[in-house]
């Protein structure tokens, strides 16, 4: 069984769908094939840990595009098939790929949008029933069923996914404990003041937060989890365990092609891999900072998946359009909406404005007095002002930003 794929996009993700659609919008007339191992058409992932897990949204509402739309774009969608091997023909962008079911797809050009997989918990008992991860629609559906019957939920990992899942479980009236190995929550993404705010916010809503502690093992009975033992010997009852300890970029196919991989598939600002005939986009990639063009970052967000996919499509179309959009991200926990714009890594100063106790504030990050990013909690105007400033290449003076009586939009100034 074989087919000619034309441009083959491996990974029916947000990035994969955007890449395929952008190719058509750029005037590509040849065949385009989008293939994914999940049995579904491409769908939104962020609601899986929010509205869908809470039960207020059905899966059909998460589809990114209808089959009729894909047909109208003449994009062939192949679902439920995993690419097992891929090879390029000597000296060119064309090649072939083979699926786990034995299908062979020949292609003229190749794009990798294969995403990432959850990092597995490596402790005894991690394979018990009732222990789940939250990455795919199948994961979220299983977790919805588990939580409906659970009384005690333990979340391992205090990142965004873990905290969002904890908020949903608490809203459902469950007893919830969050276990985080680091000394603060979401520590890789926000300043200590924001970490401490979310620790307090979850505690005020009834969540037990355990920081700076490791999970020793998971105990069960009849194949199902019943409790979690921590490194200090503490036991926590658990009918359901949600593991959210990060993700690992999928690089198997990239390594088969001998592409440079280091924390992900390494690409340049134009989404080109170390083999310029192959592009990659989305959570599987490591790229230069979109704002500065330097260093290497891996961005797990809808915004980056879309922006980088558009860049990859432009590259395949023979254009040079760098991925230079200002990164942004959001997280919904209870009635708290966190909005992030920019990248705060490397900051040497931050300014807090607003009312932390009133759960409406913003944290602005700076390096050498230049504005880098904002974390805004229930402060959409501050978020939009900073995002606009970063997009324009402007700044907001730190000395004035802390004065909440002054609207940030009135403080935007040109960089020195």
Automatic annotation (TrEMBL):
Cofactor(s) it depends on: FAD
InterPro entries: FAD-oxidoreductase/Apoptosis, FAD/NAD-bd_sf, FAD/NAD-binding_dom, FAD/NAD-linked_Rdtase_dimer_sf, Reductase_C
Parts forming coiled coils: none
Matches recorded under PANTHER family: APOPTOSIS-INDUCING FACTOR 1, RIESKE DOMAIN-CONTAINING PROTEIN-RELATED
Entry superkingdom: Bacteria
Oxidoreductase as UniProt keyword: yes
GO MF term set: oxidoreductase activity, acting on NAD(P)H
Keyword RNA-binding on entry: no
GO CC, alphabetical: cytoplasm
Gene3D superfamilies, alphabetized: 3.30.390.30, FAD/NAD(P)-binding domain (3.50.50.60)
FAD/NAD(P)-binding domain: residues covered: 8-309
UniProtKB keywords: FAD, Flavoprotein, Oxidoreductase
Domain Reductase C-terminal: 328-411
Protein name: Ferredoxin
Annotated SUPFAM superfamilies: FAD/NAD(P)-binding domain, FAD/NAD-linked reductases, dimerisation (C-terminal) domain
Pfam families (UniProt xref): Pyr_redox_2 (PF07992), Reductase_C (PF14759)
């Amino acid at each position: 069984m074989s087919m000619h794929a034309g441009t083959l996009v491996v990974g029916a993700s947000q990035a994969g769908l955007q890449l395929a659609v952008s190719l058509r919008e750029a005037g590509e007339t040849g065949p385009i094939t989008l293939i994914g191992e999940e049995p579904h058409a491409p769908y939104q992932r962020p609601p899986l840990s929010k509205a869908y897990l809470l039960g207020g949204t059905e899966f059909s509402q998460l589809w990114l595009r209808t089959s009729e739309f894909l047909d109208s774009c003449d994009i062939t969608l192949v679902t439920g098939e995993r690419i097992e091997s891929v090879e390029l023909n000597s000296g060119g962008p064309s090649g072939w790929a083979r699926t786990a079911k034995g299908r062979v797809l020949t292609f003229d050009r190749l794009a990798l949008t294969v995403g990432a997989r959850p990092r597995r918990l490596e402790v005894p008992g991690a394979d018990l029933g009732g222990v789940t991860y939250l990455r795919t629609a199948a994961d979220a559906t299983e977790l919805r069923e588990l939580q409906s019957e659970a009384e005690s939920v333990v979340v391992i990992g205090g990142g965004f996914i873990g905290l969002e899942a904890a908020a949903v479980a608490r809203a459902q009236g469950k007893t919830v404990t969050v276990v985080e190995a680091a000394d603060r929550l979401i520590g890789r993404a926000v300043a200590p003041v924001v970490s401490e705010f979310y620790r307090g916010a979850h505690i005020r809503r009834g969540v037990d937060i355990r920081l700076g502690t490791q999970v020793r093992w998971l105990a069960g009975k009849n194949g199902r989890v019943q409790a979690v033992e921590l490194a200090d010997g503490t036991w926590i009852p658990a009918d359901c365990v949600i593991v959210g300890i990060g993700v690992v970029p999928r690089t198997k196919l990239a390594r088969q092609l001998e592409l440079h991989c280091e924390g992900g598939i390494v690409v340049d600002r134009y989404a080109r891999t170390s083999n310029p005939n192959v592009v990659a986009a989305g959570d599987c990639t490591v790229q230069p900072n979109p704002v500065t063009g330097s260093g290497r970052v891996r961005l797990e967000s809808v915004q980056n998946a879309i922006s980088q996919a558009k860049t990859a499509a432009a590259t395949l179309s023979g254009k040079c359009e760098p991925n230079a959009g200002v990164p942004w991200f959001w997280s919904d926990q209870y009635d708290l909406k966190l909005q992030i714009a920019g990248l705060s890594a490397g900051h040497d100063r931050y300014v807090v404005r607003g009312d932390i106790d009133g759960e409406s504030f913003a944290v602005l990050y700076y390096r050498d007095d230049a504005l880098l990013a904002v974390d805004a909690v229930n402060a959409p105007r501050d978020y939009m002002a900073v995002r606009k400033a970063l997009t324009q290449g402007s700044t907001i003076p730190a000395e004035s930003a802390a004065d909440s009586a002054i609207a940030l939009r009135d403080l935007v100034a040109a960089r020195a």
